[in-house]
């Protein structure tokens, strides 16, 4: 009987600790998801001695593809990450 009482207490403690850890993990996942949607990739071209933003993309691959197009035309190009401006 004493063994069952201790076993029940251990299981209850483990369950409560697991629920607390799950809530913290879920909150962190929501913040990560939100942050991912606020990231934009700007394609900038060097014109007249300063960098001018010519396009903005949500996906890094699309931004790099556009940058390669400008490079083929002979422009100096860079891709910058902008976070949380929207």
pLDDT averaged over residues: 78
How does the overall form come out from the CA principal axes?
rod-shaped
Spans of at least 5 consecutive residues with low confidence:
none
Element-by-element helix/strand order = HEEHE
**Secondary-structure content class:** alpha+beta
The total beta strand count reads 3
Arrangement of strands in the largest sheet: 2-1-3
Number of domains: 2
Brief write-up:
This protein is of the alpha+beta class.
What would you say this structure looks like, in words?
With about 90 residues, this protein is α+β, with helices and mostly antiparallel strands. It folds into 2 domains: about 1-35; about 40-85. It is about 55% helix and about 30% strand. The protein is built from 2 helices and 3 strands. It has a 3-stranded antiparallel beta sheet with strand order 2-1-3. A hairpin with a 2-residue loop joins strand 1 and strand 2. The longest helix is centred in the N-terminal third of the chain and has 36 residues, at about 1-35. The mean pLDDT is about 80.
Topology, element by element:
Layout (H helix, E strand, L loop, with lengths): L1 H36 L1 E9 L2 E8 L2 H13 L4 E7 L3
Antiparallel strand pairs: 1-2, 1-3
């Amino acid at each position: 009987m004493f063994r069952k009482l201790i076993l029940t207490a251990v299981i209850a403690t483990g369950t409560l600790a697991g629920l607390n850890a799950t809530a913290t993990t879920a909150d962190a996942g929501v913040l990560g998801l939100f942050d991912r949607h606020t990231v934009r990739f700007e394609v900038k071209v060097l014109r007249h001695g300063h960098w001018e933003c010519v396009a903005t993309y949500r996906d890094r691959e699309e931004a790099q593809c556009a940058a390669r197009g400008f490079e083929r035309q002979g422009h100096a190009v860079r891709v910058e990450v902008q976070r949380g401006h929207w």
